[in-house]
Every structure is written in structure tokens, then in C-alpha cells.
Amino acid sequence: MSTKRPIRKEEKILLEFLLSKIDQAGHTYMIPEEVEEYGAPGMGSINLNNPNTDQYDSDLIQAEYTDADKIPVVISLTKDQNNQLLDLDFWKSDFSKLVVYPDPKDLMFE
Q: Residue 58 is part of which domain span?
């Protein structure tokens, strides 16, 4: 991973939106003030200031998005085995960089 940086406004908005869509079963997930990017810059995936990257437990929610270049993107918000936020992952089907960061209104859910 790269160095920590402050969470961006659009990332925080997306996280808040995704968390509002799940049943948190009495648990409140804390959105960190700092994150770390995965992979090359512009790919979108971030670690949510959680050092337990080897303790993935499950996806909290998945959404789909079509980027401005018409390439589908799957977005997953994950948690670790301690029930803490782990990652916000972006999987663009052609593995290219995001052209436009998604707005919550553009997400689709199954």
C-alpha cells in the first residue's frame, strides 16, 4: 500500500451512502479520516485505515456503476473479522483507471 492520506470528500460521501443502505444490526461503523490507496493512483480502491488486511471477513454491500467510458465497475465495501471497516474496493472490468468517481445516485444494487 502507499502512504496514508486524508479521506476525500467524494469517498466519504460514498461510504456514508453505502453504510446507510445496510442493516448494521446495532453496530456503528466508523469512517476514518485517513485512508491508503491500493494499486496505481486513480483505480479507486482504498484501505480504510485498517492494518488487518489479511483478516477479510465479508462484503457488507456491493453496488454496480457504469463509468463515463461505459465500462462496468463493481464496488464492494468490506469488513474484517473484528467487524471493522476494511476496504472500499473498485473492480473495473477492464482493469483501467476510473474516469469519473461515482456519485451515489449512479449506483445500482441487485
A: 4-106
